[in-house]
């Protein structure tokens, strides 16, 4: 599974509608509106790199109100949940 984080610039008044449209696309796990240099952040999970090529420029990039995207492909996940679950292996409750 390939995970990508897509930073999205959008027209201010279209942010809620654009976020909802993006969230409904297959392969999009979550969409966040945020403060800062970007308007939306989308978390994408797809099976192959070719799926990213279809999803991001062809579908997310064409959502009404989307001005630009900047895609970052994740190599590895680090989280407290992953670390804690690793220590639970073999431990009976």
UniProtKB/TrEMBL annotation:
Pfam families (UniProt xref): AsnC_trans_reg (PF01037)
Signal peptide span: none
Annotated ranges, domain Transcription regulator AsnC/Lrp ligand binding: 8-76
Alphabetical list of InterPro entries matching this protein: Dimeric_a/b-barrel (IPR011008), Tscrpt_reg_AsnC/Lrp_C (IPR019887)
Gene3D superfamilies, sorted: 3.30.70.920
The protein's name: AsnC family transcriptional regulator
